[in-house]
């Protein structure tokens, strides 16, 4: 038997687009870099990168 594809019934106008922001953060003790990842709404990406 074939599988049926079930469509989601979400209103796309209410959904927000998100973007993954990856920042390199330098450790004050060792000087090594680590990466910090965040899921941020597309509207706030510039604000997060400035901070």
Please describe what this structure looks like.
This protein is mainly beta and 51 residues long. It has a domain at 18-50. The protein has one helix and two strands; from the N terminus they run ββα. It is elongated and about 55 Å long. The protein starts with 17 loop residues before the first strand and ends with a helix.
Proportion in helices = 10-25%
Low-confidence stretches: none
Average pLDDT reading? 82
- The H-and-E topology, N to C, reads as EEH
Strand content: 35-45%
In spatial order, strands of the major sheet run 1-2
Number of strands: 2
Structural class: mainly beta
Note the main sheet.
2 strands, antiparallel
Q: Tell me, briefly, the overall form.
A: elongated
Distance between the termini: 54 Å
Radius of gyration of CA atoms, rounded to a whole number? 19 Å
Count every helix, treating DSSP H or I runs of 4 or more residues as helices.
Answer: 1
What's this model, at a glance?
This protein is mainly beta and 51 residues long. It contains one helix and two strands; from the N terminus they run ββα. Strand 1 (18-26) and strand 2 form a beta hairpin.
């Amino acid at each position: 038997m074939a599988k049926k594809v079930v469509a989601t019934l979400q209103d796309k106008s209410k959904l927000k687009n998100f973007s993954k922001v990856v920042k390199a953060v330098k450790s004050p003790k060792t000087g090594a870099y680590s990466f910090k990842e965040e899921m941020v709404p597309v509207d706030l990406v510039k604000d997060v990168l400035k901070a």
